[in-house]
Write a structure and sequence with these properties.
The complex is a heterodimer of chains A (243) and B (78). Chain A contains 8 helices and 9 strands. With 243 residues, chain A is an alpha/beta fold. In chain B, helix 1 packs across helix 2. The chains are: A alpha/beta (243), B mainly alpha (78).
Chain lengths: 243, 78
């Protein structure tokens, strides 16, 4: 429990070159939390963006107050979500952590649903899924969808993880659970998100799911290339071998 | 797997009657083919039922406009 006895939600936003999207995502987060009445803070961890992301983050801090917006910069050559989360959690004062993308592919409106699901089943982790219920994606062509479903299928067969969307990164964690998992997870990229769920299951944590929509406005510019697929498969096999 | 190898490849001392062994031998291939068909069918079905979130994208556009306007009023210099 947080200091005043209520739940507090710390949203971790790792950013790299999100000068355009960051104010929009923060605005939506603030509005969502104010409407739902939950106590919150937003922690922006910028990975040395050259486009002025940090500057705009500091403007947002002035607008919304530094108890609500916390801005930190890390400069790491090998940028990975893992580093950003570890860094972000040091400053988190909430008892729950929300992780999500800062590029508007994840809409903050789902956060109250993640929270509701958590309370419903007292889950340690609630994962947003694109594959169940009315979850889904926007902006993907058939090829991209096929890769996504195919990869997920192989993952389900090999790892039997008990969660439908393993590479998704829109999740709510109890703070202690995330801290424990961060100690144990070593992979990068997509595999990192998968490893979190797999390790969580090993440690006996409970996982709930909520359908979410993923709006991809970036896919046209950055196609999923052969390299990423190969490293995904390598990571998956490693996880399979070590679980 | 080991059970199959033991029975089908039949080291001496563990011999089943010939017809049984003949039936057993191709079993792994059958299973592989069956699994292959299952995989294709499953992935195909999931691909076909993968939801497209048109409304989500449209709604996001509206939210973006509202956000930009409000932030401008609050003094954000984009």
């Amino acid at each position: 429990m947080a200091a005043d006895g209520g739940d507090k939600f710390s949203v971790l936003l790792p950013t790299y070159n999100e000068r355009e999207n960051l104010p929009l995502v923060v605005w939506l987060l603030v509005r969502t939390f104010r409407q739902s009445g939950n106590n919150f803070e937003i922690i922006i961890i910028d990975d040395g963006s050259p486009d002025g992301t940090q500057e705009i983050a500091e403007q947002l801090e002035k607008i919304y107050g530094s108890d609500k917006i916390i801005v930190r910069e890390i400069i790491s050559i090998l940028s990975s979500s893992g580093t950003a989360y570890i860094h972000g959690m040091k400053h988190a004062t909430g008892n729950f952590i929300v992780i999500m993308d800062a590029d508007l592919s994840h809409h903050p409106k789902f956060i109250p649903e993640l929270i509701r699901k958590q309370k419903e089943g007292n889950f340690d982790i609630v994962s947003g899924t694109r594959y169940k219920g009315n979850g889904g994606v926007y902006g993907w062509d058939l090829r991209r969808k096929l890769i996504s479903r195919g990869a997920n299928f192989i993952t389900q067969v090999l790892l039997r993880p008990g969660a439908s969307d393993l590479t998704g990164s829109f999740r709510l964690y109890r703070k202690e659970v995330l801290q424990k998992l961060m100690e144990k997870c070593v992979s990068k990229g997509y595999v990192f998100q998968m490893e979190m769920i797999v390790r969580a299951r090993q440690l006996g944590y409970t996982i709930g799911e909520v359908p979410i929509s993923f709006v991809d406005r970036v896919y046209g510019e950055s196609k999923l290339g052969g390299n990423e697929i190969v490293s995904f498969l390598k990571g998956l096999l490693t996880l399979f071998a070590t679980t | 797997g080991s059970a199959w190898a033991a029975l089908a490849l039949a080291p001496p001392g563990l011999r089943l009657p010939a017809p049984y062994r003949q039936a057993l031998l191709p079993l792994p291939v059958y299973l592989l083919v069956a699994f292959g068909c299952y995989s294709l069918a499953t992935v195909g079905y999931r691909l076909a039922t993968f939801n497209d979130c048109e409304e989500a994208a449209a709604e996001l556009q509206e939210h973006i406009s509202a956000a930009r306007e409000d932030l401008r009023r609050r003094g954000l210099r984009f």
